[in-house]
User: Fold these one by one.
Assistant:
Number 1:
Amino acid sequence: MDYAVIAESYEKIEATTKRLEMTDYLVKLLKKTPKDVIAHVVYLTQGKLYPDFVGIEMGVAEKLAIKALIRASGGSGSVIQKELEKSGDIGETAEKQLAKRKQSTFFSKTLTVKRVYETLDKLAKTSGSGAVDTKMALLSGLLTDASPKEAKWLIRTVTGNLRLGIADMTVLDALSIAYGGGKEAREKIERAYNISSDLGRVASVVAEKGLEGIEKFQVMFGEPIRPMLAERLGVPEEILEKFGGRCIAEYKYDGERVQAHKSGDKVTLFSRRLENISDQYPDAVELIRTQVNAKEAILEAECVAMDLETGDMRPFQELMHRRRKYGVEAAIEQYPISLFSFDALFVDGKDLTQDSFPQRRKTLEKIIKPNDRLKPATQKLVKNPKELEDFFEEAIEDGCEGVMCKSTSKDSVYQAGNRGWLWIKYKRDYKSEMTDTVDLVVVGAFHGRGKRVGTYGALLLATYNPESDTFETVTKCGTGFTDKDLATLHEMLQKHVVPRKNSRVQSTLETDVWFEPFVVLEILGAEVTLSPIHMAAMDAIRKGSGMAIRFPRFTGKYRTDKSPQDATTSKEIVEMYNGQLKKIGESPT
Ligand code: ATP
């Protein structure tokens, strides 16, 4: 298959803003794709070479891309630089440059998808001394043989500027239509994705073996299962009502979610956003290796910072110190952890995700040899609001954030990748007069004045809207930051500065600096109000109004464990707004 076919499809996808049309173009592309490269095509259309959990990124800096472009086009550096400043788009710059190329160097060999993929793969894996030159040679090799249009998409891909907006869900829709026989297949294909987190593997199985293959799709060691998520409620009566009067309440530990894969002596740990974090937690790896009595197992646990002397749990923030590449040994000593396991998803060849929660818990208890560093989560069957409230108080007393209430019904399966009512979180924040904390994405900033000169004075924060795959501003926050936070944030955000507002950011405000959506912060606000300037959930409550958070304050929690797509959604803000109205006795509009 020629890369030109892909480039042509990208052109069409870029030109439309309609999701249905986008899906349609993607379906056509997938149908044209030979089965042996379909996984590659799926990764490439999302600007990747592998599923995220593999952790291999192309990471070509703009500077290097420009050098490769100079070499392949024979153009001058200053002209290219000027062009880039004018358009702000390195892809377009590449296209224009190559169009000017002399006939003699006109593309000699056609680019196949296989060659593009393999070259980019080599490029991504090149490291060490001389890596820059090797990468440049690999990239300019491709560009020399590329048509101007192909060059545009190649350059955008390698520099991380593809931005076609093809979300995972769009790929699943397209696969269902192209190879599953229609939209009805979506649920089965999505399940395969939810238990593997690998769209490429899902694509090649459905393309080669159809729905039958997808039905046989298995959980695999080393492929993280997408996490099951909880809904939230603030009143014990309402929680119990949802569960028909009884549920299991479990301590809601305030740490980092970890999915542990064990196969013999080999253990891999994945974070909530499915990154491999084994190197950060060799102590947790060892606990799983020695205290889990199964040849193969996939477990979920909360990893909590501990004071080993008192046995007390420490605040979540202490885990920040464990996010490091060097000095891990010292950090293990200084910031020890314990694991509280709350689910078992796969044990000795058996996929447990379709078992009920009580069954899974039984298996979990069977395979864990508890010690003071690894235990099953503390839990209790509660049958009335008083029991739930008492258990909640106990959890808070013990240093937890609240409780997780879980269904005990026969259908209480593990809903991989879904937020549903089988789990309901009940947290302390709900008890205050303030709204719950929210996790917001930093999309822009305003320069600091006075004491804050040289750092940011306030940040522009946004919610995520999964329907449009955009980030909608919801508040401007300048409170709650210590001097250290200001310095940390400035450094953290530097890497994400972009010259102009990102196309996925919805804002009517102008800032001094714009960022690509990446950093997520936990914010506590006083109230959700309607807003004429913020874009979150625009028109949802009243035409022409968005939603805003009043009196926002940074809680001190950097949600480095969340990707921007995991931030609080605009819809959740609407729910909070309606919840507030209920509290003060007004009916929501
Ligand atoms: P979410 O993960 O629902 O998007 P979040 O990351 O903000 O939200 P919370 O709202 O605090 O997290 O609640 C969910 C998290 O609680 C889980 O992802 C898990 O890390 C943690 N947790 C702690 N104890 C438990 C438990 N017993 N069962 C399930 N999850 C637990």
Note: Residues 529 and 535 are 12 Å apart (CA to CA).
Number 2:
Amino acid sequence: MKSSVLVINCGSSSIKYALVPGAEGQPRLAGVAERVGSSDAFLKGIDSRGEHFEEILPGADHTRALEAIFEHLEGRRPDVVGHRIVHGGEHFTRAALINDDVVTAIDQTAALAPLHNSANLEGIAATRALFPDLPQVAVFDTAFHQSMPPRAFRYALPEALYRDHGIRRYGFHGTSHAFVSARADALSGIAGGWLTAHLGNGCSTCAVWEGRSLDTSMGLTPLEGLTMGTRSGDVDPGLHAHLARQLGWSLQRIDEVLNRGSGLLGLSGLTNDMRELEAAAQAGHENARLSIEVFCYRIAKSLAALSCALPRLDGIVFTGGIGENSALVRENVIGHLPHFGLVLDRNANTETVRGREGRIDSGHLAAPRLWVIPTDEEGRIAAETRQLLDETTP
Ligand code: ADP
């Protein structure tokens, strides 16, 4: 039987978890501890009967929250823990069995993602202290993109910035792009050339050829690329200096506005939630309409740019909360790419059932395929964790 994997995604104030069982047919237990470290911390999730539960954990730190998560596993002890780690730098090209050296190496990449990696490390430390005899594996968001060639990952900056400080494009959402492109291969019966669009609160695109990432829209940080929920995506690199010089903005304020006050939220002045934006646009809210238009146009522009990385385009895959659920966004994006010969099946697009895989092109043999594929980052992390465990266990 396959090992059961507890997948942990530890942020600075939240811990998402999923117990991915080894046996077919067993339910997955999942949930999230939120506001960790504050007086109103709580844990909510789904039990094995599919019922929702919620428990308040006043003042719980990461260790206490993890203990509470273990108490909600209904006595099912995982064989291994898989930690989602945001940044693996150039050091990690695949998952790694956690030991002191791996912890040190993750710590050394923390300068590239200070908030994320230090929270991930806190989760590892707490889990190791609580369950010292459980093997633990680190699965990196960046690892899938380590196959990008230098022409895709280098910035046109002085070489020393790359050599001495690791300043280059890394890319993120690797587990999601890897998962949906592998599903597209399986569903289509080819090892194809795919453009994948992960559209959630964070958004990125990726060019995948025969299972390898050749280019992606995010860069040194998850701010580069597409318009996102609250992140600006690409802006003129001169903007930062302009805001500092002309408006007297501090670095902290620039960072805050570009990461948390921009994107769909900034453009609409309303919300970062696509469902609410669609409703507001329908009701005549001009800035909501504009935010969706910019969002879709930027996705199409990014897909067109990334198509340069592929020897052949077999299709486009939509995933993430917006990619899986918004027929409007998919139709608008595809509408901007007529020169790719894409033919959308409008009925299939609007009838695609939430949470299900669906093909939304007309089925014309010469036209690239259009897929909607629900992502399963926890499933992919569990699979990579198992694979590594199998390789390292005699
Ligand atoms: P995260 O990146 O935080 O995991 P998700 O992948 O869950 O986020 O995506 C969240 C986004 O998906 C939100 O903008 C939300 O409005 C959007 N979304 C979810 N359901 C729908 C829907 N039915 N129609 C349009 N957008 C949706």
Note: The chain has two domains: 5-140, 189-377.
